[in-house]
Write a structure and sequence with these properties.
This protein has helices at about 15-30, 45-55, 65-70, 70-85, 120-125, 155-165, 195-205, 215-220, 275-285, 315-330, 360-370, 390-400; strands spanning about 5-10, 35-40, 90-95, 100-105, 115, 130-135, 135-140, 145, 170-175, 195, 225-230, 240, 255-270, 295, 305-310, 335-350, 375-380, 380-390. With about 400 residues, the chain is α/β, with parallel strands linked by helices. The protein is globular. It is built from twelve helices and 18 strands. Among the domains are: about 5-175, Acetylglutamate kinase-like (Carbamate kinase), CATH 3.40.1160.10; about 265-305 and about 315-330, VC0802-like, CATH 3.30.2130.10. Bound molecules: aspartic acid (ASP) and magnesium ion. The site of magnesium ion (MG) has 3 residues, from loops.
């Protein structure tokens, strides 16, 4: 007997038949004697629709009412799945975030989970009852509904698994697991049997969309075993685990990419103390996340060039903020250039810690394909480069082969 959290994403509960199918899966696990809590997303497309409506009805966005609206998609699927389970003779009930409660902070639209009270659910496990919870939602200290940010149901599921001391958190989705690279682009991509928390965290934050980044962070911090698998097949998925559990560690485990990048270059920036703070301070104040940064050493110690990246969505705001800083704070630069046609490609693997030449192989491979590297950044287990977006496919396929990741 095991205690399991089973989480189903939007495509897995996309319509009534899919929800019935999910109910059969849950029943099978319950019939095997397991204690089950299920976390569901909204039906695919529903949350987008809800978000759109909030935008159409008012120009002023009260984040509390936004959350009231966008959290409803999950309430529907939680209720429907409970009905479907009962129809199959399984004892089941739904629990909204506020009923448990799932306590979050008050950061509406991107709230963080503070505490989950799992006592009542645990008690009912004893009577064989399945708990069905809406992902994505919680309740604030002010007793208002909150949501956790897009893709937040993954985090709900992992947090619940931690609170219940579950043996595993199974994340059911529409792909068979975590792949060495996006299989839609790299046909030879392979499904990984296992991946470490750290690698998964890098994969998620560097653009692989399979899990919400925060959910991986939480799994790592609480040691929750996570499995990513498909609700459309019966194939085993990918286990996200501690490094010690991986016997044969590859140097590079996967390649991620993000097209959602934009580059700003400031030419002829004054080279004096305080200038970087004068640029990045106002960006931070505007809640604009800066990712990669490069600054040249100036030859004459008077002027230099500075390049950094932001998300595409933030680009026009970032340009505005920097131009304003130039005028107001005397951040002298000569020219501002911006470019949204860039992609960040990252090779990721904990094996890099003990292997030399990983970055070199990346640079050589790109050079052999005449792909110019615009910005480079590295961490202990990752090398990222910024290149022109039109080379995305070419770069991913070439790197996948260069790091011996291709399926036979
Ligand atoms: N329904 C929410 C979204 O689409 C949360 C989730 O599915 O994870 O972002
Ligand atoms: Mg998702």
């Amino acid at each position: 007997m095991a205690r399991l959290v089973m989480k189903f994403g939007g495509t897995s509960v996309a319509d009534i038949n899919r929800i019935k199918e999910v109910a059969r899966r849950v029943k099978a696990e319950a019939d095997a004697g397991n204690q089950i809590a299920v976390v569901v997303s909204a039906m695919a497309g529903t949350t987008n629709q809800l978000v759109q409506w909030t935008g159409e009805i008012a120009t002023i966005q009260d984040a509390r009412e936004y959350d009231t609206v966008v959290s409803t998609g999950e309430q529907i699927t939680a209720g429907l799945l409970s009905l479907a389970l009962q129809d199959l003779g399984v004892s089941a009930r739904s629990w909204m975030g506020w009923q448990l409660p799932i306590q979050t902070d008050g950061a509406h639209g991107s709230a963080r989970i503070l505490k989950i009270d799992g006592d009542e659910v645990t008690k009912r496990f004893g009577d064989g009852q399945v708990a069905v919870l809406p992902g994505f939602q919680g309740v604030s200290p002010e007793n208002r509904l909150t949501t956790l940010g897009r893709g937040g149901s993954d985090t709900s599921a992992v947090a619940l698994a931690a609170a219940l001391g579950a043996d595993r958190c199974d994340i059911y989705t529409d792909v068979e697991g975590v792949f060495t690279c996006d299989p839609r682009i790299v046909a030879k991509a392979r499904k990984l049997d296992k991946i470490t928390y750290e690698e998964m965290l890098e994969m998620a934050s560097q653009g692989a969309k399979v899990l919400q980044t925060r959910s991986v962070e939480m799994a790592m911090n609480h040691g929750v075993r996570v499995q990513v698998l498909s609700s459309f097949s019966n194939a085993p998925g990918t286990l996200v685990v501690d490094e010690e559990e991986i016997v044969e560690q590859e140097v590079v485990s996967g390649i991620a990419y993000s097209r959602d990048e934009a580059k700003i270059t400031l030419l002829g920036v004054e080279d004096r103390p305080g200038v970087a703070a004068g640029i990045f301070g106002p960006l931070a104040d505007a809640s604009i996340n800066v990712d990669m940064i490069v600054q040249n050493i100036s030859e004459d110690e008077r002027r230099t060039d500075l390049t950094f990246t932001v998300t595409e969505a933030d680009l026009s705001r970032a340009v505005e903020v920097v131009e304003k800083a130039r005028a107001a704070d005397g951040i002298g630069y000569e020219t501002l250039l911006s470019d949204a046609d860039v992609v960040k490609v990252s090779v990721i693997g904990v094996g890099m810690r003990s292997h030399a030449g990983v970055a070199l192989r990346m640079f050589r491979t790109l050079a052999e394909n005449s792909i110019n590297i615009q910005v480079i950044s590295t961490s202990e287990i990752k090398v990222s480069v910024l290149i022109a977006e039109k080379y995305t496919e070419l770069a991913l396929r070439a790197l996948h082969t260069a790091y011996d990741l291709d399926a036979e």
